[in-house]
Amino acid sequence: MGAHWIETAARHWRHGRIVGRRFAERRPGIRAALRAAAPDSVLLAGNSHAEFVGAPDLGGRPCINIAVGGSTAADCGRHLAALRVPVRCAAAVLIIGTNDIQRWRHPERARVADRFEADVGGILRRLEPWAARVFVAAIPPIGAGAAGRDPAAVAVFTARLAALCAAGGYAFIDPFAPWRSGAGGLAGPGLHRDGVHLADYAPLAAALARAVAVDIGTIDARASAAVPPAPVRRPAPAAPLRVLRAAWIGRP
């Protein structure tokens, strides 16, 4: 048992070093991009699935990618705590959970799922003042050969994300739905290049763009409908010609 505990501690240490280095590499670019954030920007946060999407046009809005590959929910929360967003953006999209279901983390244990839910709750509370609308993606399916992750935990941890969204008023989306093979947490053939990362992230970017555009477009339409039309200013009646002539003659 002692040897197992030491091995797990070593895994955590190695993981922290790897993700910490990646964040250090990405931080200058992320901070520069955030300085240019605008009210119509969309923030993309989370793990490598979010990072590898890049910065596509999301529903006609510029994307600022603040994701860090390899992140767990706890890592993501720490990274976000080190950032500042100067304006409230239109939306934020979170993709997280793939690294939380690694088998050596024992995702089958209830307390591990509880900790994941608490960590994601902290992320959402941080994103809420940064974005008018927060989207949370379901955990993507994994390949059948990805032995290091637990496919059964995909549905369990995704249910925790959906519950957080229902309780907090966030938008839960599943851009990975077309690529799932049933409800067991596995993907259909050809989706991945290594059982975890997608072979092509362009379809995911397109799915996210559709989700953001439809949701925010609906909100924008409702907001526009709720705003009464501006009163029409009618021009004042023209002054009689003799008054205008008298005023002109009387000018110094």
UniProtKB/TrEMBL annotation:
It holds the Pfam family Lipase_GDSL_2. Coiled coil: none annotated. Residues 59-198 form the SGNH hydrolase-type esterase domain. This is SGNH hydrolase-type esterase domain-containing protein. It comes from Methylobacterium radiotolerans.
